[in-house]
Write a structure and sequence with these properties.
Elements lengths: L16 E7 L6 H8 L6 E6 L5 H6 L5 E5 L5 H14 L4 E4 L11 H7 L5 E5 L13 H18 L11 E4 H4 L11 H12 L3 E5 L18 H18 L15
Parallel strand pairs: 1-2, 1-4, 2-3, 5-7
Antiparallel strand pairs: 4-6, 5-6
């Protein structure tokens, strides 16, 4: 079964959609990124995940955006869950997520919204095909992405090419069926397990490979590649174990490799 062959319910032609940006200490980028995002989106949400730099002040100076602020830094996954909950509560049909570090091109937002008419999850892929001017990723990040993407495909029966791209579109109603609990950067791995378990349809869209700050920190121990890989595998194994059927290696209700 291919990722695109899974069925998904129709969304209305006048679907309401929201663009959400998780932000933590992005004072250097947030104004420019939001100016570009607002060229392509009317409804924009910023989840400020407890920024300690000038980000809150910058956000206060920008009109026509909604801001939800975490009092303290809770993590990338927690910020995304806040955005998902907001989209559900406010009755949106589709939510597009885009990072605020300048590595995603807002002009591609309409492509993601359009693709959500044929899939529950539309995921950007920096490795689906090359673009002129692509920036080579840091070697350890590319290696870990490739390893985890291969493991997901093998264990879940998927055909992903990029497990970690933050540029995505989700249909909100199917998203509500997923049990997402991981607060940190490993949340996308939990997401793929839950999506496979729920039988959600997935398509990938090619996006350019842009690295503006190759030395950008994950924070703490995760800056060490071996510890980051071990953390990601713990998240994946925990998510897989949570959904196993009794006396079976298969995911309950989902696809399996």
């Amino acid at each position: 079964m291919t990722q695109e062959s899974l069925s998904c319910s129709a969304i209305p032609s006048d679907a309401r959609w929201l663009v959400a940006l998780p932000v933590y200490n992005e004072a250097a980028h947030v104004a420019g990124v939001l100016a570009e995002v607002r060229r392509y989106a009317t409804d924009v949400l910023v989840v400020d995940d407890g920024s300690t730099d000038a980000t809150p002040r910058v956000l206060e100076s920008i009109d026509d955006i909604r801001v939800v602020r975490h009092a303290a830094n809770r993590g990338y996954g927690a910020a995304l869950r806040t955005a998902f909950a907001y989209a559900s509560r406010e009755g949106y049909d589709v939510i597009v997520t885009i990072d605020c570090d300048g590595q995603h091109e807002p002009k591609r937002i309409p492509e993601f919204v359009a693709a959500s008419r044929r899939a529950d999850i539309v995921s950007g892929s920096r490795y689906l095909r090359p673009f002129p001017g692509d920036t080579p990723p840091p070697a350890d990040r590319r290696k870990i992405n490739a390893m985890l993407t291969a493991e997901l495909n093998s264990r879940l029966g998927l055909a992903l090419t990029d497990a970690f791209c933050g540029f995505k579109a989700y249909r909100v109603r199917p998203l509500e069926r997923l049990e997402l609990t991981e607060d940190g950067y490993g949340m996308p791995l939990e997401l793929w397990v839950e999506a496979a378990r729920a039988g959600l349809s997935i398509v990938e869209l090619p996006v350019p490979l842009i690295y503006l700050e190759e030395e950008r920190s994950f924070g703490g121990a995760l800056d060490q590649a071996d510890r980051r890989l071990a953390y990601y595998r713990r998240v994946l194994d925990t998510a897989m174990a949570r959904g196993r059927c009794p006396d079976s290696q298969a995911l309950c209700g989902g696809t399996t490799g």
